[in-house]
Amino acid sequence: MSPEVIVRSGVNSTVRPGAADATGPVPGGPATPTLDVDRTDTGYRSWLKEAVRKVQADANRSADTHLLLFPLPERWGIDLYLKDESTHPTGSLKHRLARSLFLYGLCNGWIRPDRPVIEASSGSTAVSEAYFANLVGVPFIAVMPRTTSAEKCRLIEFHGGQCHFVDDPRTMYQEAAALAERSGGHYMDQFTYAERATDWRGNNNIAESVYSQLRLERHPEPAWIVATAGTGGTSATIARYVHYMQYDTRVCVADPENSCFFEGWRDHDADASSDRGSRIEGIGRPRMEPSFVPGAIDRMMKVPDAASVAAVRALERAIGRKAGGSTGTGLWSALKIVAEMVAEGRTGSVVTLICDPGDRYLDKYYSDAWLEDQGLDMAPYAETLASFLATGRWPE
Ligand SMILES: Cc1ncc(COP(=O)(O)O)c(C=O)c1O
To answer: Which of these, 141, 214, 221, 356, could form a disulfide with 324 (CB 3.0-4.6 Å)?
Structure first.
């Protein structure tokens, strides 16, 4: 028997015979009718199917990112690798996250045709989300600190997104939620959903990709993987995957100044906070973000911002490429771990990430005027790195 279809307020709602708001129970049927509301919206479902297909097809057209070698003296017997996430179509490791967040939001029925997607971001995630919003054809608004680099804002607009600035970075979450409420849109909330939208057991996540690329190396199971934390999602995915696959690799998170992740992790303090925004774009947060999973992390380091800048400058000398400040934060910690291994006479491998390209930050981490303006002196850190790479000893 075909269901009786009642169209209410423009949406196909179907009430089946016996439903409470139909004309009444069928004579001879049970006394209490079965409540049955069918909200199937065939127009929305075909839009959804097409949106998911577009996101999946984009992934299918994309290649994996490279695992590069940072040159170290052969006699050390240690290999340092850089997972180059800057080669994604939107230029950062956030491309993976944005794809996962869009699939999660679409499959949950949260992202709807013509309704804006709104995100609180320090910039990189917003660039990647603007790309996916454009792909599926929904408007996109990025709520960001006013200090976000001009190049990231340009890229968001290039992909058809809008930039909405806040003066106090701590207010961007409420501002994004309020904007979603007012516009009937969806607040993506990367800081809450990054860890659960990403499939940490595999599905070619960043960790699975690293291990498969290391398969033919002399030390295929790294002693350490070093990540940085913005949402905390990348470090959570890597650490969970390592544990799930029963590897002995340990996971270190490098945190910049003006972030509370290090203190919150060290002191087991979920309420840790910081009252200033991070200078290293993309990482370092003023609160313990829900996607940061402290229990999964083995070690953390607090890296001075001037050391992060010295490390990205050293990276350019070593491999001829510029990278963003967060790459320097991770690289500083990875080199410090390599120094420990050299001192202990241990061989093995260490992995860290190139999170995004340096051309987004020419007026920051590559500008001596900016460093001076910020009161940052990278000279002692540059000396530490030069001396370590020449002698194998970490002078700190
Ligand atoms: C440039 C950059 N590096 C590193 C990260 C850290 O990644 P996650 O958010 O997964 O902790 C981010 C996050 O926004 C970022 O933008």
So the answer is: 356
Task: Tell me whether strands 37-38 and 11-15 are parallel, antiparallel or unpaired.
Answer: antiparallel
The type of residue at 182 is R
- Which sequence spans correspond to the domains of the chain? 66-89+203-389, 95-194
Q: Cα separation of 301 and 253, whole Å? A: 7
Who's near 92: CB < 8 A, 6+ residues apart? 85, 86, 124, 127, 128, 282, 324, 355, 356, 357
Residues 6+ apart with CB under 8 A from 338: 72, 76, 78, 80, 350
Q: Is 124 in the pocket of ligand 1 (CB under 6 A)?
A: yes
List the CATH code of the domain at 95-194.
Answer: 3.40.50.1100
Residues 288, 290, 291, 296, CA torsion sign: positive
Q: Is 92 in the pocket of ligand 1 (CB under 6 A)?
A: yes
Rounded-to-integer distance, Cα 315 and Cα 313, Å: 5
Tens-digit pLDDT profile for residues 331-364: 999 999 999 999 999 999 999 999 999 998 999 9
8-state DSSP, 239: H
pTM score of the predicted model: 0.91
Three-class DSSP category at 25: coil
365-390 pLDDT, tens per residue?
999 999 999 999 999 999 999 999 99
Say whether domain 66-89+203-389 belongs to CATH 3.40.50.1100: yes
For tokens 């590897």, the residue is: 247
Secondary element (H or E) of residue 42: helix 42-61
C-alpha 152 – ligand 1 centre gap (Å): 14
